[in-house]
């Protein structure tokens, strides 16, 4: 067992082509010394974040500063992405500068240092820039002066939409770059774009969506958070990247609610995609993301819609999300058999958990609780299943450091 453990987050600009996403995932699972902890697919951003963990040594038989098996796996995943994805035909609601948009390295154990992470970042940057001839921009501990990722992005014009005001479509970088890459050619290949590589402490992300188009108001509300080290939207630049579907919901209805639906199946792509399509049928319900965890063998679907306190049926509340959820749940029960399900995370059912979260200021915890009870009745009385529901706010976008380490050592030990 190794004392130095490191994490890498790899962001690939593609989530809508399941075959490509799964092919890259399989490459990330080939080396038993590298653990692909999760794969976070964002359909609106049209990108995937792969989280990998492995060990790192300060001595290398090749004479390089550090060695980690993660380097070879990353290069194979990156080559597969460049072979299968063309940035010229890619579009999404999140900024990006390349097919392989960002790679960040994070020391996880106390023995692993930021210098270890930075050295590995530079080696991977060289593999991409010099080996694959794609411009690479370094940031944070990997950059000679420690330049932040946001500073590099602003210099590159990363936050400026280039399509319909709120979308990023095709290449966004000019042929002549506004600054020289740290590694690789100065010419940007249109089909691949450029890449950013950095090393920094692990940020445990917790997203709280903001439903407001008034940038000064958002900045004023976020100022106290930023003073305490919380990263808030970056003014007008940060607001440009918000999903337009959320904005439409907030302007039509003051009460906006979120639901996270956990289904005990991630390895059957056809089932996962079928349930996703059901979640996208109602224009009043937005399927924000689909987070597939291959080791847990479950998927978290995140849906957003409005909720009203008046219902023509005489019930306490009404939300279109209820009908969509029921259709997704029925599809899950029809396609998944818990008796043959296995995974590394505890679960009590095919539909293992649902949580409801008030998002806008007008939506209350009572609204969320009332909707939770109605959905519980749909399942318990209508589908004859028992289901506990919880209500909270916001959502984590990745595993915590402790969870990463726990699962990494668990999986590596099982492989040994």
What does this structure look like?
With 416 residues, this protein is an alpha+beta fold. 34% of the residues lie in helices and 21% in strands. A hairpin with a 4-residue loop joins strand 11 and strand 12. Helix 2 (69-84) packs parallel to helix 3 and helix 9 (320-335) packs parallel to helix 10. The longest helix has 18 residues, at 114-131. It is globular, with a radius of gyration of 22 Å. The termini are close together.
Features:
416 residues; alpha+beta; Formiminotransferase-cyclodeaminase, Chain B, domain 1; 2 domains; two-stranded antiparallel ribbon
Task: Break the fold down into its secondary structure elements and pairings.
Elements: E1 5-12, H1 18-28, E2 35-42, E3 47-55, H2 69-84, E4 91-92, E5 100-107, H3 114-131, E6 136-140, H4 149-156, E7 168-169, E8 195-199, E9 206-207, H5 215-227, H6 235-240, H7 244-252, E10 256-263, H8 269-279, E11 286-293, E12 298-306, H9 320-335, E13 351-358, H10 365-382, E14 389-391, E15 395-396, H11 401-415
Parallel strand pairs: 5-8, 6-8, 13-14
Antiparallel strand pairs: 1-3, 1-5, 2-3, 2-11, 4-7, 9-15, 10-12, 10-13, 11-12
Helix pairs in contact: 1-2, 2-3, 8-9, 9-10
- Widest sheet: strand ordering: 6-8-5-1-3-2-11-12-10-13-14
Low-confidence stretches: 233-251, 385-395
Instruction: Enumerate how many helices there are, as a single number.
Output: 11
CATH architecture of the largest domain: 2-Layer Sandwich
Query: C-alpha Rg, in Å?
Result: 22 Å
Order of helices and strands: EHEEHEEHEHEEEHHHEHEEHEHEEH
Q: Characterize the largest beta sheet: strand count, sense, and whether it forms a barrel.
A: 11 strands, mixed
CATH topology of the largest domain: Formiminotransferase-cyclodeaminase, Chain B, domain 1
Structural class label:
alpha+beta
What is the number of E strands? 15
* The top level CATH class name of the largest domain: Alpha Beta
Domain Formiminotransferase N-terminal subdomain: 4-201, 255-416
InterPro entries: Formiminotransferase_N, Formiminotransferase_N_sf, FormiminoTrfase_cat_dom_sf, FTCD
GO molecular function: folic acid binding; transferase activity
Protein name: Formiminotransferase N-terminal subdomain domain-containing protein
């Amino acid at each position: 067992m190794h004392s130095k453990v490191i994490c890498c987050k790899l962001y690939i600009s593609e989530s809508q082509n399941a075959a490509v996403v799964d092919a890259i995932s399989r490459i990330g699972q080939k080396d038993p010394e590298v653990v692909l902890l999760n794969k976070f697919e964002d359909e609106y951003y049209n990108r995937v974040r792969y989280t990998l963990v492995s060990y790192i040594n300060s001595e290398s038989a090749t004479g390089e500063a550090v060695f980690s098996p993660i380097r070879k796996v990353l290069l194979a995943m990156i080559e597969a992405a460049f072979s299968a994805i063309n940035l010229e035909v890619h579009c999404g609601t999140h900024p990006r500068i390349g097919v392989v948009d960002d790679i960040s390295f994070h020391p996880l154990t106390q023995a692993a240092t930021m210098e270890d992470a930075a050295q590995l970042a530079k080696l991977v940057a060289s593999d991409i820039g010099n080996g694959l001839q794609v411009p690479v921009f370094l940031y944070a501990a990997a950059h000679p002066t420690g330049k932040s990722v946001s500073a590099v992005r602003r210099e590159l014009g990363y936050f400026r939409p280039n399509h319909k005001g709120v979308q990023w479509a095709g290449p966004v970088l000019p042929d002549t770059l506004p600054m020289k890459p740290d590694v690789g050619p100065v010419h940007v290949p249109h089909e691949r774009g450029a890449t950013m590589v950095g090393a920094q402490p692990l940020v445990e992300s917790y997203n709280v969506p903001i439903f407001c188009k008034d940038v000064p108001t958002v900045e004023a509300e976020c100022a106290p958070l930023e003073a305490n080290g919380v990263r808030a939207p970056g003014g007008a630049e940060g607001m440009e990247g918000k999903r337009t579907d959320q904005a439409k919901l907030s302007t039509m209805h003051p009460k906006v609610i979120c639901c996270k639906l956990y289904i005990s199946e991630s390895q059957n792509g056809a089932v996962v995609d079928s349930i996703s399509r059901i979640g996208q049928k109602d224009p009043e319900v937005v399927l924000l993301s689909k987070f597939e965890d291959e080791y847990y063998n479950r998927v978290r679907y995140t849906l957003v819609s409005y909720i009203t306190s008046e219902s023509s049926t005489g019930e306490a509340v009404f939300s279109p999300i209820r009908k969509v959820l029921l259709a997704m749940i029925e599809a899950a029960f029809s396609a998944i058999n818990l008796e043959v399900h296995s995974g590394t995370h505890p679960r009590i059912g095919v539909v293992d958990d649902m949580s409801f979260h008030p998002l806008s200021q007008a939506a209350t915890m009572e609204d969320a609780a009332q909707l939770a009870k109605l959905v519980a009745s749909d399942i318990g009385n209508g589908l004859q299943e028992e289901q506990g529901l919880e209500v909270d706010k916001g959502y984590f976008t990745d595993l915590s450091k402790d969870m990463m380490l726990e699962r990494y050592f668990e999986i590596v030990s099982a492989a040994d």
